[in-house]
Amino acid sequence: MSLPGHLLPSLVLLVAGFPGWAWVPNHCRSPGEAVCNFVCDCSDCSDEAQCGHHGASAALGAPFTCDFEHDPCGWRDISTSGYSWLRDRAGAALEGPGPRSDHTLGTDLGWYLAVGTHQGKEAATAVLRSPVLHEAAPTCELRLWYHLASGDAAELRLQLTHGAETLTLWRSSGPWGPGWQELAVTTGRIRGDFRVTFSATRNATHRGAVGLDDLEFRGCGLPSPQASCPPGHHHCQNKACVEPHQLCDGEDNCGDLSDEDSPTCGHHMATDFETGLGPWNHSEGWARNHSAGSPEHPAWPRRDHSWNSAKGYFLVSLAEPGTPTVLSSPKFQASSPHNCSLVFYRYLHGSEASCLQLFLQTLQPGAPPAPILLRRHCRELGAAWVRDRVDIQSAHPFQILLAGQTGPGGVVALDDLILSDRCKPVLEPAGLQMLPPAPWAPAPETPPSSLVPQNFCDPGHLSCGDLCVPPEQLCDFQQQCAGAEDEQDCGTTDFESPTAGGWEDASMGRLQWQLLAQEAAGGRFLSLQRAWGQLRPEARVLSPALGPSGPSCELHLAYHFQSQPRGFLALVVVDGSSRELVWQAPGSSTGGWKVDKALLGARRRPFRLEFVGLVDLDGPGQQGAGVDNVTLRNCSPTETTERDGEVSCNFERDTCSWYTGHLTDAHWHRVQSHGPGYDHTTGQGHFMLLDPTDPPARGYGAHLLCRPQVPAAPVECLSFWYQLHGPQIGTLRLAMRREGEDMLLWSRSGTHGNRWQEAWATLHHQPSSRTRYQLLFEGLRDGYHGSMALDDVAVRPGPCWAPKRCSFEDSACGFSTGGQGLWKRQTNASGHAAWGPRTDHTTETAQGHYMVVDLSPDALPQGHVASLTSEEYRPLAQPACLTFWYHLSLRSPGTLRVHVEEGGRHPVLSISAHGGAAWRLGSVDVQARRAWRVVFEAVAAGVEPSYMALDDLFLQDGPCPKPGSCDFESGLCGWSHLAWPGLGGYSWDWSGGATPSRYPHPAVDHSLGTEAGHFAFFETGVLGPGGQAAWLRSEPLPATQASCLRFWYHMGFPEHFYKGELRVLLVSTQGQLAVWSQGGHRRHQWLEAQVEVASAEEFQVVFEATLSGQPALGPIALDDIEYQAEQRCQQPAPSQGHMATPVSVPAAVGGALLLLMLLVLLGLGGRRCLRERGGCPFWSGREAATPSFDNVLFNADHVTLPESVTSDPQATT
Predict the structure, then answer these.
(1) Phi-psi category of 352—alpha, beta or left, where left has phi over 0 and alpha has psi -120 to 50?
(2) Which pLDDT score, from 0 to 100, does residue 319 have?
(3) Coil/strand/helix, residue 461
(4) Separation between Cα atoms, residue 557 and residue 559, nearest integer Å
(5) How many C-beta atoms lie closer than 10 Å to residue 494's C-beta?
(6) What are phi and psi of 216, to 5 degrees?
């Protein structure tokens, strides 16, 4: 599971969500005071509707979130150039550098705000501005998710403007990680009106594509007036209530400063460093500074705490990393039996090695005793001022010492030191002396004496014996030192030692993790305790940097957890900016201690472990949480088990040597057959499953790897069964990793039908090499409806048979060129290929691959032959059909001959024809009882320039069908279901009535009339708004004066909820001709239709499944398509649907020329509107049905405007 942000939205409710802390007023104040102040002054929260409130809890402090799914929540673009913000979604955008999915839903149907690519040569800034917001509490935090790749923008900036001052809350020039990144900043107390702006700046070298989603304000509302306050609370002058600890803490918690005014806090001694150090005038290494004109340091505070202004002053450590700085208080009288309290605000940002410690130094005649450590805060806390408080009872006069130590790249700062009225300064007696600063201050990690580096080791290295262990080898689960000093304080601990296994509290709110002694047993454990922070409510404790870890790495722990009614205890893995939940305590546990374990798996270095907890210590009962006896086991990446060599696996017992990678939050899962998910081995066993949306994931894909293997033979064959099923499923790839490099062996994209498919790949190793290798299955989340599955993986010595399917996307599929090397595997991605098609057939893009041979006279003289020979195919148990797609240059290049080699060479097909812009389908029937090969021969005609190309070979059972015909028993025949991005990226699928499926489809087919039969189908319920559709396209068919297309269709929609539509289009270079359509409710039965078609030029038949309204669950199915060339249709069958008089495409074009001009003008003028509404499926030639085919849509007697241009999808002129 993923952990968005710093906590679990499904597990955590902010502190305000606890009972008794929420107050929902039943009246509305005047609009000027009530609108956008983060408090629901109206019972329906209508006063906050334009500020991000969309049905969130009205409790004080609940997050006000905008996910942009319905509107921009009042945020507006104020850019002054064409580089600007707009509301967008991935399903509406064509190919480009922007997000492939939003952050809210994690799919292409979710909305976000985006800045599109901009081609201008001048620098430009896109600025997004919030609505006017009113009054932010001191605890206010703004969180958002942004998306861009390094190189897409020069700078991102988040600013807040109030009055005459603009505060820069955050600024970054990268580098930025992949996918959606979270940003969290505190605003501090803002009085009056303010706005927030998010800006992206690009220059001529940046594309400028940026996304923004899930913008959220937390803890921003001030308390509302109350008639009376709970016991112990302070009643402000404005009738608001604040807790006792919020009095005189340097923050305006009431909203009118009455909790900080002179009558309340006049006897406190506050130092804000605006005019000097005040009584804290003994400083070593600290200096006053401010943000305005500050050094260009990325971790430098951008404002002080006192005034929340860049002009305000604070105290900052100027010492070099590793050198402590000390700030000394005045001398105070003995405070016992009362408390002398110190409130202070700390800032630790930019380094995990920074540390701030607070000591008590008692002052006695003679040599002073060693200082006593009262507070210790280390690690990164972010760019925030965090409150703390220390209560001191001392029987002797004393001083308070604040020692800071800055880590590399970090900043340690202090502000607003407030001493209570019980802190009484004393005149310095003659016998009392100040402690000299610095020498006694301990290092941030307080290592035991055995870990103190010796002089002969570089800084940061660990000395053990004669070794100097570098930092990257500390806590890597591989012992370097004889005494294992390099693996001490690496997470494993019983919390009895002072170092607590290296765990450090990083809490910022009212809870913290502290070591606590058990009353009965006397041992210590990690416990949730009260704290003085004012920010995020949950408590966090982090391990040191760990890893890399091995696949079997586990964390074992003892815990207790009791919280009512809400709360949680969880373990999170922190890897850079990503956070993954790996364990949580079940429910609200009761009783005593329990033991459990969590699988961490193989992870790269560095990663950290984090316990996150939230309980209501003021709630009913004995609420609390604790952790003890944390042990990391089997974490060494070199650790081996008996299963490590088990690459062959049916996943029935376990996953053998296969394990899940953790580079993203998407994961493969071993699951048991259930419902529509069934395994290949037995139909009732286990298999590996990847569902792109369950649980919600944001990562680009998921990895399944085997443990490193030693080659058993120079050549091995890996076979496996896979399933790619669903109307919008992504890509499954197989790669071999050797010495850190991945070599792609195999890949498939889009649905391959609702059945298990067998595939194999040959593994080539260096002769006599012992170099280990890994196999890696990668499922990409470039589709969001469907599932991927793997089962029955097996490896054996020797080469594989020739593959049944070859797209040339990954390799040449073992084809050999007979030593001539004339056939070449090629892509036209650069646009500068010397010869060959502009696009391949598999992907129909310039990035796709195919095999091509240059037949120009200089390359191959007239009459000469270039051969392309496959590897051996395995013997066939029944007749089969080998299909392939070929492309010939415009001028006749020569002859393409196809031979089958089974003992001898037998010619089976010869093609001599003029070329064209389209790929054409070829097919040969094959019967072979022995191993056989296929040979393609290109015979040159001596024409300049000329070429032949091949793509998409597929061997399927059964005889070859006639062109344009298919009964779907063995597959889709020559019909293509390639998903088009402009239509939403959806595909027709293939299934049988008896096959379990997560998508509804007919119970029986038409061909056999039984559950064993098969058909093509599409589930329209997955279609979103914006004129999306799915196409099923025939191969190119020759021009015809009159031919008959017969087919059977099935529509299964609920009564009164029918929204789907099936249409038949004829597509050619002249446009698209709609010749048949069917809408309206149909009962669950197969119906026959026939359409007479005519075209003056080569064309394709397209079955289009689309919507005539809002989405509704229901399938459309097709079966027994028969194309009868040059035969007119007989008497029309019943239920023909709506049929137009067949008219040739050129005639339709001539009759609608003026309307075409209008269509072009509408398209140019409404580009932004189209994009916001989801895109037009007929926008550009790039999305044409086939390369060079236009996308102008005609009916037989009128023009149909695309749905995204008209408000009515059926609007015609």
Answers:
(1) alpha
(2) 76
(3) coil
(4) 6
(5) 15
(6) -140, 135
pLDDT at 1132: 60
Average pLDDT of the residues in 468-472: 90
Q: Which residues, including other chains, have CB under 8 Å from residue 437's CB and lie 6 or more apart?
A: 282, 284, 325, 326, 328, 401
What does the block give as tokens for 508? 């910022």
Q: Are 893 and 855 in contact (CB under 8 A)?
A: yes
E strands, 499-655, are: 504-505, 511-517, 524-530, 539-542, 554-562, 568-575, 578-584, 594-599, 608-614, 624-633
- HSE value, Cβ hemisphere, 13 Å, CA-based, for 15: 17
Q: How far apart are CA 179 and CA 164, in angstroms?
A: 36
pLDDT in tens, 576-611: 878 889 999 987 656 689 999 999 988 988 899 999
Q: CB atoms < 10 A from the CB of 930, how many?
A: 11
Is residue 136 pLDDT above 60, yes or no? yes
Tokens 């929204």 locate to 1059
Evaluated on CA atoms 106, 109, 110, 112, the torsion sign reads positive
Q: What is the pLDDT of residues 1032-1071, one digit of tens each?
A: 999 999 999 999 999 999 987 765 555 678 999 999 998 9
The rounded radius of gyration (Å) of the Cα atoms in the chain is: 35
Measured CA to CA, the distance from residue 3 to residue 488 in angstroms comes to 29
Q: Could you give the angle at the alpha carbon of 859 between the alpha carbons of 853 and 860, nearest 5°?
A: 80
The C-alpha atoms of residue 752 and residue 725 are separated, in whole angstroms, by: 6
* pLDDT average, residue stretch 233-259: 94
DSSP 8-class letter at 399: E
Token pair in block for residue 614: 């939230």
- Taking the C-alpha atoms of residue 250 and residue 271, their distance in angstroms, rounded to an integer, is 10
**Is the bond preceding residue 337 a cis peptide, omega within 30 degrees?**
yes
Burial 354-381 (b: 16+ CB within 10 A, else e): bbbbbbbbbbeeeebeebeeebbbbbbb
Residue 1205 confidence (pLDDT): 27
Residues pairing with 330 in the sheet: none
Distances in whole angstroms, Cα of residue 1021 to Cα of each of 516, 737, 986: 56, 40, 11
CA-to-CA dists, residue 1038 to 919, 921, 952, 1095, 1126, angstroms: 13, 12, 21, 8, 10
**Distance linking the first and last C-alpha atoms of the chain:** 52
Query: Residue 991: which of 671, 723, 719 has the closest Cα?
Result: 723
Helices (H) and strands (E) in the chain, counts: 5, 68
User: According to the model, what pLDDT value does residue 1137 have?
Assistant: 52
* Average pLDDT of the chain to the nearest whole number: 83
983: which DSSP letter? G
Evaluate if residue 856 carries a pLDDT over 50: yes
pLDDT tens digits for range 759-790: 999 999 988 778 899 999 999 988 888 889 99
pLDDT surpassing 60 at residue 27: no
- Within its chain, how far is the Cα of 1048 from the centroid? 41
According to DSSP, the residues that pair with 794 across neighbouring strands are: 719
Q: Which of 312, 238, 241 is nearest to 273 (CA)?
A: 312
Residues 6+ apart with CB under 8 A from 46: none
* 175: preceding bond cis by omega (within 30 degrees): yes
In angstroms, the CA 302 to CA 292 distance is 8
3-class secondary-structure state, position 116: coil
Q: Are 608 and 600 in contact (CB under 8 A)?
A: no
Length in residues, the chain: 1213
What pLDDT, in 10s, does the model give residues 58-89?
Answer: 444 567 888 998 889 889 999 988 888 999 88
The larger pLDDT score, comparing residue 349 to residue 45, is at: 349
User: What contacts 1180, CB < 8 A, 6 or more positions away?
Assistant: 94, 982, 1191
